[in-house]
Structure formats: C-alpha cells, structure tokens
Amino acid sequence: MSINLRFYSSFLLTGCLWFAAQPVKAAPTLDALSKAFAIPPDSARPQTLWHWTDGNVTKGAITADLEAMKRGGIGGAEIFFASQEIPLGPVRFMSPEWFEMVGFAASEAKRLGLDLSMHNCAGWSSSGGPWNTPENGMQTVTTSETRVSGNSHFDAALPQPETKLGTYREIAVLAFPATSDFRIPNYRPKAEFEWQNNVEPALGPDAPVGGAIEAAKIVNLTSQVKDGRLVWDVPTGDWIILRVGYTPTGRTNDPPYSDGIGLEVDKLSKSALDLHWKGMMGPVMDKLKSLPGRPTTNVHVDSYEVGFQNWTPEFAAEFKKRRGYDITPYLPVFTGRVVGSTALSERFLWDVRRTTSDLMSENYYGHFRELCHQNGVKFSNEAYGEGPMEELTAAGASDIPMGEFWVDGTSMASCKMESSSGHIYGANVVSAEAFTGQPWNSSWITTPESMKPMGDRAFCNGINRFVFHTFVMQPYPNRFPGMTMGQWGSHQDPRSTMWEPQRDWIRYITRSQFLLQQGHFEADALAFTGDNPDSVIFMAVGSDILRRTNPALPPGYSYDVCSADGLLKRISVKNGRLMTPTGTSYSFLLLPPNETMQLSTLRKIRDLVRAGAVVVGAPPKRSPSLENYPQCDTELATLTQQIWGDCDGKTVTSHAFGKGRIFWGLPITEVMTRIGATPDFSSVAESDSMEYIHRSTGKEDIYFVSNQKNEARDLECNFRVTGKVPELWHPETGRVEDAPLYREENGHTIVPLHFSPSDSVFVLFRRAAKAPHFSSANWQPEATSPNLEIINAVYEAVDGTGTADVTETVRGLVKDRRLNLTANTPTLIKDPAPWHVKQLVVQYRIGVKTDSITIPEHQNLALSADSLRSYPDYEWTTDARGTTRLVQWENGSLSVQRAKGSAVQVPLPNVTAPQEISGPWTLSFPPNWGAPPQVTLDKLISWPQHSDAGVRYFSGTATYSKNFDLPASAIGANKVVSLDLGAVKNVARVKLNGRDLGLIWKAPFRADLSGVARAGTNQLEVQVTNLWPNRLIGDEQLPPDAEWVDNHIKAWPQWLLEGKPSPTGRLTFSTWHHYNKDSPLLPSGLLGPATIHTGNIVNINP
Predict the structure, then answer these.
(1) Taking residues 935-952, what's their average pLDDT?
(2) pLDDT bucket at 537, cuts 50 / 70 / 90
(3) Buried-most residue among 110, 162, 383, 754 (CB within 10 A)?
(4) Contact (CB, 8 A) for 64 and 41
C-alpha cells in the first residue's frame, strides 16, 4: 500500500495550512489513521516552556510570541516566571499588571487554539512564595542535649535547638541514661536530613557495650516542660536530656523573581498546600475563570530541587497510623543514637523514610492533582530530584508525567522513569522537557539535525510529547538573537536562525508523537525497584536504570520500572501475563537484589505468582520495617518458603507455585528461553546503535525504529509479529508504503531496511500478509567503498583560552574505516586548557566529500566511511498504484528472492557517473547584516574561509545561484534525477527552474529533481542557513555596547530602551555573553561537492 497525499484547498480551509505547506501525493483511499498521520491533530504537536524572565513582559511580545508558536507548529506553552540574572523589567510579580498580562496571554492562547499552562510559583522549583509562612514551610527535626547527674533536682531552661526564622515547635523532651558517643553510620541521609540514593536498612555494625539506649529506660518528660523550662528530680546515674522539636528548613523557591521569592511549602501537609494554592494559583484561577472558554489546560510542578524535610505537624500521628507504633521512644535515633539495637534503629529509620515518602506522594503531588481537578485543569509534574520521595509513585499522581533530557543526553533515565509511571498509572501522554542546554553545548549551536537522534532516543524511552527548553519572551522587537533564559536552553524561538527552517523537523516530531500516542506500550519485563522509598532513578544513565534489578535485560526486550505502590495497586495477572488496567502487559517480573521486602509486597507477589505470573529473583530475607516486628519476619519466612519452595538459586533454579513460576539463579537469557520470550526487535547492529519502541492498539502493532549512528546502514530488522504486511510510515514526509521486502522466520517478520544517517521509520503491522511479494535481495557492488581520512583535528577550549593539534592521535585511532573515541584528555593525550570546558573539532574526508564535526568534551565520536554516503547502492520505492520499483544508483548485480518461488536475477543498466556542478557560484546576502550584497565564489568554501569579513562573520540565510547543463540522456521516464549538495552547514532550501523543491534539514542533503530538471540549461538556487555564533563573534571584534557582570548583562543599555541601533555598530544583541573575539568560527554555507546523480528506475513484479 502506498499513501502519498497532495493537500488540496479543502484541507487548507479546515485549518491544516501549516501541514499543507509540505506537499505529498494523493492516494486512492485513506483510512483514519493514515489521514491523521498526514495531518495530525493539534494534540500531537510539541509544546514549549515559555520563560517570562524577570518581569520583562509586554502585551505586544505576548501576541508576537504566541503567533510565532502557532505558525511554527507549536501546540502550547507552559509559562515560567523565572529570574536568570536578567535586568528587571516593568511588570512585578503578582501585581495588577502581572495579572493583566497572564489573563491576556490566556485569551491570546485561546484565540490561537494553543494550550496554555503555567508553573505553580515563581522559579522552576518547586512550590514556594512570599505567602508561605514559616509555620507552612518545609519542616525538619532539630534537637539539643543537656547532660545531668543523678540524685539531683533539675529546674532550668533547656537550650533551644537550632531554630530558623524564629519558629520552633516542641515534639518531645526525653531523658535516658547517658551512652557512649556511638552513632549509626550515615544516619543523616537515613533520617531524611540530606540526600543519599538507595539507602537500605543495614544490619550493623551494632552499638558497642554502653552505646545503645534501652527503650524501657527512656523517660518522657514532655509534660514537665513549660515554656522550655524543665523541672525534674533526676534519678541515680548520668542522664542525657534530649529536647526534640521542629523548625523550618528555610528553603525557598528557586530561581524566582525577586518579589516572588518565599518559603517552600510543607510537602507533607495538605493544609499547607491549600494555603500555597491560595497564595498564587487561586487568584490566577479566579482571573482565568472570568475569561470565556477554558484558556488554561494544566498547572505544573517542575523538577524537585529544594532539599529534604522529615517532619510536619501531623507527622507523629501519621507515623502511628501508617506504621502501627508510637514514634516517641525512637526520637533519639534522629540524632544517630541507637535505641534497642542498630538493626531495630535502622528499621525505624526506614519507617521514617517510608512515611515521609508516602506523605509527599499523597499530600503534595496527590493533593496538587486534586486541587487542579477542582479548578478544571490537569496536573503535570517532573516528579524527581534529590528529595524525600519515591519518584515512580510521585509521578503516578500526574495527569501528564514529565521527564527531561538535555542536549548532551543526560537525564534520559528520567524519561524512562516517567513513561513507566505513565504506563502503569494510566497516563497516555508522557511529556519531556526537551533539549535543555548549557553554554558549552547549546549556545545557538543546535540544529534539527543535531537534535534529532537525541529526540528519537527520548521517543524510544516512552516520551510522546516534547516540551522544548526553551522559548523566551522577547519584549524588544528586532533584536537578535535577543533575550535568553540566562545561560540555559537550546533557544527554540523565532530569534533563532533555525526557527523557520526547523518547521519540517517540527512536522516530523508531530507525526511521530501522533503515532506514539496511539494504543499502549508493549513490554517484556516489569522491573520492580524495591520497597526502599528514596530511590533517585533519574540520576541513572541509560540502561543503568535497571541497576536495581538483577539481572539486566539483553537487547531487544523492553521494560517498565515499577514501585511498590504501582505493584500493589495497578498490577494483576491475565492469561499468565502481568497486566495494567490500561492494557500494557509484561511477561515476567524482575525483582531487585535487595535483602528486604515489606510483607504487603511479598503477599502481592505471592498472589501474582499463584495467578500465573513469572517472577525472576531471589527471595527477601527480612522486612525492612519495625511494623509488627518480629512477627513480620516470621510471616515473611513462611511466605518465601511457600513461594520459592526448594528453589535455592544454585542446585534448584525454578519452582512452580500455583499457576505461575519462580526463577532464581539462572541467566536471564535462559529464563526467556524457558518461558518462550523471544526478542521483540533485533538487528545485526550493535545493541546501543539502534533504538526502538513498540505500541499496540489491538488492531495495529506500531514500531518506531531509530538509527542512532551518524552513518548510512542497511540492516535486517526482526519484529515479533507474523501474518501481517509490514508498512513503512515516514514521519519526515507523511509517506506510507508497504515494505518491498519481508519474510517470516521463527515467529518474527524480517524486514530489510535502509537507514540514512540518524534516520528513523515507523513500521506498522495492520493487514494480513499478502502474496506474492519479495522476501530478500542480494546485491554485489561493482566498486569498493571509500576510506575515512582525517584531515585535521583540534582539541580546544570553548572559551578560546587554548588549542591543541591532535590530528596524528585521531588518525591513529581510525580502524577498519571507522573512528570511535571519547573526546577527553586521556584519549587525546594533550590538554590545551586545564579546568576549562573543551571540545574536539575534526575535519575529515570520505571519497571526494569533506565535512567537519564538533564533539563536546567527554562525549563519544563515532564516524565511519559510510557517514557521508548520500545514496545507497539501490533503493526501493512504491508508486501511487502500489507498484514496487527499484532505483539503481550504483553499478552492480542484484538478485531478489520471491517469498514463494525462486530467486530472480534483475537486469540492470549501467548508471551514469555523477556530474559535479563545478565552476563559479554567485552567493547573495540579505541587507543590514554586514555582508556584501553579492560575492562570486570560484569554488565552494566555508564562509569563515572568505577574505571578506562580512562573509566570514555572516549568520542567517544566504542564496547560492548557479546554472548547470544536463544531457538529454539524463531525462526520461525511467530516470530519476537527484541533486546531492554534499556537506551543508546547516540547512538548505533548493529551487530549480523557479520551482521550490523544499527544505533539507539533515543528511543526506539530497533533492529530487525529477520532473523539474530539463535537458539543457537549468537554473539552480540554494538557500543556506547557518547559526548565530559567527555573527556574535564578529560583533566581538567591536567595542562593547553594554555593561557586563561575568557573562550576564548588568543593565539594559539606554540605546536599547530607546529603540536605537547599537552605538558601536554591533548587529546582534543578547543577554548572555557566550562568545569572545577569539572564539572559533563555525563552518557555514554550502560546502559541497554538489553533484547531479542519475538513477535508473527498474520495475519489478513479484
């Protein structure tokens, strides 16, 4: 089946103009899914963070920004009121003018059909403001001690424990016989005073003799204290009087407007959160409710970055209700002392962590959702960070869970965590703060091509809505690149040179997100993270998210991670598979290598196995809790014996229980073999170079497959589906076609696929397999492949403080036509600037093509001789009638195998050699950006190599013009004429003979000239857009036109406020100083070589 849509005016009249800008061809019939893929609904569009920095807000800027979002394919904005060392603007936080601006933004978003949401307070973390009093702020336990001797009368004021903000409340005053100074190792993170990941209850070391407090000897003196003064007749012996109370942590929201700063709300108290809501969101909701329609869609809580708390006024009561015993005798453990024994005290500390985590999930995240729903909006949050919470459970409170990933790939594990929570708790849309950046990796240097592989990886980690970081409000018109969010972000706004060119990438994202929002996630394993309540999963990198499961999964199997709450409340068994209520299912449950487990969790595992589940892992040895101790350990031992039976993980590695089975001690591959779990997806590529995700609607199996390497590849991809035709859905173009080659083997469908560099495709299985069709092909090339040659390699400081020539070192690392290295000093031997952020710049040649690549320090560089390969030897296409055609680009021989029948040798004509477009080019520049109107290039060069400074420092879009001749033999019904631009920095739009052939935003930079090219003379026009750094560096050659403090602007210059040009002749203006006059210029322009390729069309019928 082939579906190619040309969008007629009827589509334009129904609001589809933005997608109609990219034409595709008509097809005989269209089903609903195909139509929506071609023109996705607005709900599939990416969204953006919208930073209103330091009160620099105007109505004109609001309208301009939102209209630009609409034109650019953005579906919505999330307002943040942040301060990032930007001079103050005129609109003060929570002032009448501020409320007017918020209401105006909501009305404008409604007019434009955009979603609008906002953060719940100023800053991005987490929930604070000046309306929060010390009593409603985050609270922490604080203590003081007094040593007294016995047989005495004590009548004195006790020293008040450390107190913040003049606020202290008593919990209890206890006395106990003096002990040694022994403390529980690492007690502070165990008691939730500070962060440490994955804290488990320890068995020792036990307290030495005289180092533990006997619980029976603790005296509660609370009732004998009045206004801090204790009256007590001290018994015989030496005693310690411990005064225990709580005080605010003093943490404030970060980083807010100066007039929006205030205490962070108590995360363990619903009543405190109610007051926080009334402080800002209540008045905002009242304002917005007065507007027609529903102008806001959700309220957001961003990543948690405000530290720990371990108390709230109701903590003691909640502790007793949840854990079943009184907290008072164990209060000395908050000082690190041992009560009873180290083991018992460790259990108590676990109970403290469990209680704080439960309260935070319920009273902060859960109650936030309740407040949102009461006001008719949804709740989104980034439920992770260094805080007293269990991230997966906290994320389960979200209507829209949200992860994040940075330009350099960090924090990707948060995406897997948040998508897992979404799958388990039933959130269909899982968003991510996308492409967050820092100066050394996103100082206006990101492009759609550079960001695509990381975005594809996020898709494969379960994300199906990008929220770009960031779009900054621009109150000063016609200033470029304009306002920034301080040093942060990848600058996804109209002042970026990539804004207009990236629309095709936005279309790609939108189509991808539409399909990834269909159905449910298909997985193999459910990885239980354990009962420990303080696991910080987002800190993991890549597959290390499975570090708490044993063993890790081999490639080709997908998984979700699950907390105890999710396991207890959301997982059941159906037909031998673990099930969520929304349809995601799993073949088996992976247990973590923990020695402890709550009884409630073990009972759930018993019920699951009894009902038919497969569980992999060792039995727990004890409960982590003091709840119902020691009976809990007795029951736990009984249950483990019942479930694991004689399975010891050594001589016996499997045990049947009920309808299910336990495995322990076997390699995971052996377990999968025994239960018949074959890989869901596989290829012959390295496991880390291909990513995939699989979703299912019940009728359709939807696979997304991403080539993570910057090289062309031909791979056989295996899918765990049979009996259906594989369809290739191309999100870049909206084209849908049947795979020309496929076969079935051993319960899988094998589809040979060609991937260009960083390419991706959806493979859908919907219709019954057809016959006849081709199953495989065998190509024998006539020519050998080119080699990879390193021309030059420089290891340099990003700030220009030093460079080192590492060409010979890098050349020596090329093996078998490939280069793989990490850009760091140990690999490159030389360090040009210790303690400075560095990057590696490599210029290389493959055949006749030359290109360069820049890799940030500590990142991996992988190149192969196929990196610049623009054309495969041949490629398959399907025309509008469903006829399979082959386009031959190289000489060689080809045989194809029929699915039922013999191999067929395909007669192939000779391919015409590529024709280089040589000779002079005319290069034209727009006015007012420092470049001459026009220059002539004798050959294609990078703009920084030109003698004219205006060309060297130019940033923006310039136009190449060139006439070239084609012989009549290149034109014909059985010919495809294609333009290969070679290397382009950074995007190109091609026009031929006055016809716009579209924009090319990633390699290979090819344009189909068929039907437009003609015999004889052809007029070629190529518009190339580069990045901002070169013009910014050019302006650094001139005197400054503003005052700076370090890298941020000190104050708005008067000429800016008056709307005048820069007095020193600078053409650019920004609020962060990313470059200096010695910063290296970026390769820019059409680098070539530009060549015409003529392919032969060969019709083949199965």
Answers:
(1) 98
(2) low
(3) 383
(4) no
Quickly name the fold that domain 915-1036+1075-1099 has: Jelly Rolls (2.60.120)
In the structure encoding, which two tokens stand for residue 488, read together? 């942060």
Q: Which residues pair with 849 in a beta bridge?
A: 846
Q: Which of 495, 498, 446, 496 is nearest to 61 (CA)?
A: 495
CB atoms within 10 A of CB 166: 8
- With tokens 């249950």, the residue in question is 639
DSSP for residue 683: -
- For residue 858, give both structure tokens: 């500590």
Of 667, 730, 727, 657, which is closest to residue 699 (Cα–Cα)? 727
Could you tell me the maximum CA-CA distance found in the chain, to the nearest angstrom?
Answer: 115
pLDDT exceeds 50 at position 278 = yes
> Are 360 and 344 contacting, i.e. CB atoms less than 8 angstroms apart?
no
Q: What's the burial of 16, exposed, middle or buried (CB within 10 Å: 0-12/13-18/19+)?
A: middle
* Residues 128 and 306 sit within 8 Å (Cβ to Cβ): yes
Q: Report which secondary-structure segment, H or E, holds 795.
A: strand 788-797
**Spacing of C-alpha 891 from chain mean position:** 43
Q: Which fold has domain 47-132+252-258+272-304+382-519?
A: TIM Barrel (3.20.20)
Cross-strand bridge partners of residue 472: 51
Tokens of 184: 């529980």
Q: Which residues contact 536 (CB under 8 A, 6 or more apart)?
A: 195, 197, 198, 384, 385, 386, 391
538 backbone dihedrals φ, ψ, rounded to 5°: -65, -15
Q: Give start and end residues of each alpha helix (H) in 324-447.
A: 342-359, 367-374, 391-395, 412-425, 439-442
Per-residue pLDDT at 420 = 96
State how far the Cα of 154 lies from the Cα of 174, in Å rounded to an integer: 14
CA separation for the pair 398, 373 (Å, rounded):
11
Q: Is the full-model pTM beyond 0.85?
A: yes
Homologous superfamily of 681-783+872-906 in CATH?
Golgi alpha-mannosidase II (2.60.40.1180)
Structure tokens, 252: 């404030």
Phi and psi at 387, nearest 5°, equal: -150, 175
pLDDT in tens, 824-873: 988 998 899 998 888 999 999 888 788 888 888 887 788 887 777 789 99
Tokens of 70: 């609409």
Eight-state DSSP code of residue 1028: T
β-pairing verdict for 957-966 and 921-924: antiparallel
- Can you give the pLDDT at residue 91? 97
CA distance 216 to 875: 82
Gap between the Cα atoms of 109 and 74, Å rounded: 11
Strands 818-822 and 814-815: antiparallel
Q: Among 535-549, 900-914, 1003-1017, 1062-1076, name the one with the lowest average pLDDT.
A: 535-549
Reduced to 3 states, what is the DSSP secondary structure of residue 505? Answer: helix
pLDDT at 10 over 70: no
CB contact set of 10 (below 8 Å; sequence gap of 6+): none
**What residue has token string 């943490």?**
251
Q: How confident is the model at residue 28 (pLDDT cuts 50, 70, 90)?
A: very low
For residue 817, is it left (φ>0), alpha (ψ between -120 and 50) or beta? left
Residue 647: both structure tokens together: 């399975």
Q: How far apart are the C-alpha atoms of 110 and 92, rounded to whole Å?
A: 24
**Beta strands at 814-815 and 921-924: parallel, antiparallel or unpaired:** unpaired
Distances from the Cα of 564 to the Cαs of 523, 526, 571, in angstroms? 19, 12, 10
Tens of pLDDT along 624-666? 999 999 999 999 999 999 999 999 999 999 999 999 999 999 9
Residue that has been written with the tokens 């790609």 in this structure: 508
Q: Where are the domains of the chain?
A: 2-39, 47-132+252-258+272-304+382-519, 139-248+310-343, 681-783+872-906, 788-864, 915-1036+1075-1099
Is residue 1057 within 8 A of residue 479, CB to CB? The reply is: no
